[in-house]
Amino acid sequence: MMFTLEWFNEILWIDSMPRHKIFVTGDSGQLGSQIMASLQGYQLISASSHDFDLANLRALSEKLDSIRPDIVVNCAAYTAVDQAEQEPERAHAVNADGVGVLAQWCAHNECYLAHISTDYVFSGSKPLFECYSEGDATKPQTVYGKSKLQGETNIASVEGLNYCILRTAWLYSASGENFLNKIRNLAESDPSRELKIVHDQYGSPTPVRALARQIQVAVDEKLHGLYHASAGGYCSWFDFASAAMQQFGIECNLKPCSSEEYPTLAQRPKNSILCNRRLADNKLDTFLNWQDELAAFSNA
To answer: Is 291 helix (H, G, I), strand (E, B) or coil?
Structure first.
């Protein structure tokens, strides 16, 4: 193959093209930090939830005006599910009101918005082992779920906004506060200690690395609308903990228990199983089955 001067000039021109600027919110959280580490092909700017407080509406707009992003990936959220029951105003300020202002800014400035939502927008009362698809009726049972659903509504109601909402569930990573790290730390600190794990709540454990991979596709393709984005298959929390400890080679004493034996301030859905129907229909679903995702996570 002969490389001509025109060929080299074309390559240089492509390399010199300005890259789109992505603003990642919530970069100190487990998902935001993973996106900053894995998103490719863009100019990345980020801020923590402390530096970019969605509840501070005036400062929010001023920050966006100073950055002028082409794309916003919103990972910032109020995620303290139980605490939200005691701080409903704060939860709604961050997850609903702030998200609405963010969406308005993006629409007015022709900025693409990728927003992360949750399985908590559903009641969890669907018959077990039937998954929730994007078209199923929402009926949140908690303050957290209601605030996240209102955030979705605020986004979808903004005229002219190019956006995607990705609902996910049961996120875990090697860092940050999540179920997997909590169980692993407890098991390693005292292998003989009995750890009771709920066995009657079902969902799809999803590593943040896999979700970040799917977000890359969503941003690259400029997906529009609502999508479910979680690992394939389903299991109970007890199943997940057992499989994870076996995968890590950690000796421990896990015992199944019912939700009634482990009461929480906010009601947990019995069925959090999401199916990625719209991603699959568009042949853009990058997730593996949850067991395969767990194996890939442990071998990374």
So the answer is: helix
Q: Is the dihedral of CA 82, 88, 92, 93 positive or negative?
A: negative
Query: pTM for the complete prediction?
Result: 0.92
| Calpha distance 205→121 (Å, rounded) | 17
- Side-chain-side CA neighbours of 186 within 13 Å: the count stands at 14
Alpha-helical segments (H) within 222-276: 237-248
User: pLDDT for 9-34, tens place per residue?
Assistant: 554 444 445 579 999 999 999 999 99
The reply to whether 144 belongs to the active site is yes
Q: Which of 283, 285, 134, 280 is nearest to 210 (CA)?
A: 285
Average of per-residue pLDDT across 142-150: 98
Catalytic residue among 144, 163, 172, 202: 144
Percent of the chain with pLDDT over 70: 94
pLDDT at 221 over 60: yes
Assigned token pair, 107: 């629409």
Q: List, in sequence order, every beta strand (DSSP E) within the chain.
A: 21-25, 43-47, 71-74, 112-118, 163-168, 171-172, 194-198, 202-203, 206-207, 225-228, 235-236, 253-257
Helix (H) / strand (E) containing 32? helix 30-38
| Residues 65 and 108 sit within 8 Å (Cβ to Cβ) | no
The H or E element that residue 290 is part of is helix 290-299
- Three state DSSP letters for 134-174: CCCCCCCCCHHHHHHHHHHHHHHCCCCCCEEEEEECCEECC
CATH numbers and ranges of domains, the chain = 21-176+205-233+274-288 (3.40.50.720)
The C-alpha atoms of residue 132 and residue 141 are separated, in whole angstroms, by: 15
pLDDT digits (tens, 9 = 90+) for 86-131: 999 999 999 999 999 999 999 999 999 999 999 999 999 999 999 9
Which residues, at least 6 apart from 144, have a Cβ–Cβ distance to it below 8 Å?
Answer: 78, 79, 80, 81, 84, 91, 95, 118, 120, 266
